[in-house]
Amino acid sequence: MSIFLKVSRDFSQCGLAVGIPLSIIYVIAHQLQYHSIAPDDDIIDPQHEKTDLADRDKLNNYPLRSVTVEIAAVACGDRLPATMVMFKSALISSSSTTSFHFHIFADHDNQVDFEKQLNTWNAVKIKRAKFTLYNITYPREDAEAWRTMFKPCATQRLFLPELITSTDNVLYVDTDILFLSGAERIWNHLQLFNSTQLSALAPNDVKRSTSWYKHHAKLPYVLPLGVNSGVMLMRLSMMRSVGWVEKIVDYFKQYKHVGFRFGDQDLINIFFHFYPGMHGSQCKTAEKNGIQIIHGYRGVLQANPKWDKQPTFKAVYDAYRDHVFNNSMETLLRTIKNNMIAGESTQCGKVSNLFTKALEENTT
């Protein structure tokens, strides 16, 4: 629903010759223009969407007031370290007037480890953060199928409208997300939702020629390229009112014989395929304001050897992981830039300034 929050990129645009998207760069309210990566008619032009330009300007100029951002994440298996780094990046990159309520859905072992690590954060007085731990909960029918679809517990996010009742809105993020600018900037998109919009998502690709959904999907999806579910702004009360969970369960039963290549993301695409009036798109150039969020899945942030040709992403992850809260933003920036030196010759390394631009603006 609502305006899309990002432009997605696959690694082929950063110099890695593969046909599947491996890293996604989210650019809030700005289009990342790559005139050299494909013919103009191959790149989806966001201007084909009828978007109110006055609303775009309103969002860009919206005052960043004191606000509590509600962030939800699901962590099972080995996802605890990456989740902690994601939380850390949200806190570090946001305004000092922004507070957070992190809703953490985790299996038992991870809950124990989360409590231990969060206690260390409390020891250094992270006053802007509140944490709530939830058990993994699925419908009794097909519970194991839900739990193991795609990645462990990844589909838990589909049931958030029924599981989080303390707030009307939540920002769901995958555990392999890093914030390079204040999460409150995404949160402000709620101000532009109309009365029928219940979620904000981003397109899964920017090129028709490499779009996985366009060329391979056997399921209904959001035209023209499908949506990516790594960052999802959710109006929980509205989702409850339209019977989101019931419809998702029905789609699961209807299409499970086909198979879900991307699990919960496929089911989200099916929902918005049949309810197209509940989402829209808005993207503009990121060259002015820099990259706001990076999404490095398939292990790229942790330098999966299979994708080691893109060290720029790991450079940012490592800097956030090792950053001490009491250290300055300048220290973080210096570490990121030093880490990026090794990848200067890569395609993404050549535009590494876009990875630090938003953080640099936060230090001035």
Description:
Helix 9 (244-255) packs across helix 10 and helix 12 runs antiparallel to helix 13 (353-362). Helix 2 (80-93) links the parallel strand 2 (67-75) and strand 3. The protein is 33% helix and 14% strand. The longest helix has 16 residues, at 108-123. It has one domain (11-278): Spore Coat Polysaccharide Biosynthesis Protein SpsA, Chain A (Alpha-Beta Complex). It has a six-stranded mixed β-sheet, with helices on both faces. The chain has a three-stranded antiparallel β-sheet with strand order 1-9-6. It is built from 13 helices and nine strands.
Sum this structure up briefly.
This protein is α/β, with parallel strands linked by helices.
Structural class: alpha/beta
End-to-end Cα distance:
34 Å
Poorly predicted parts: 1-54, 280-285
Give the mean pLDDT. 77
- Share of β-strand residues: 5-15%
Task: Determine and state the CATH class.
Answer: Alpha Beta
Radius of gyration, whole Å: 19 Å
* CATH fold category name: Spore Coat Polysaccharide Biosynthesis Protein SpsA, Chain A
Global shape: globular
Number of helices: 13
* Count of discrete structural domains: 1
Q: Which percent range fits the helix content?
A: 25-40%
CATH architecture: Alpha-Beta Complex
Number of strands: 9
Helix and strand run = EHEHEHEHHEEHEHEHHHEHHH
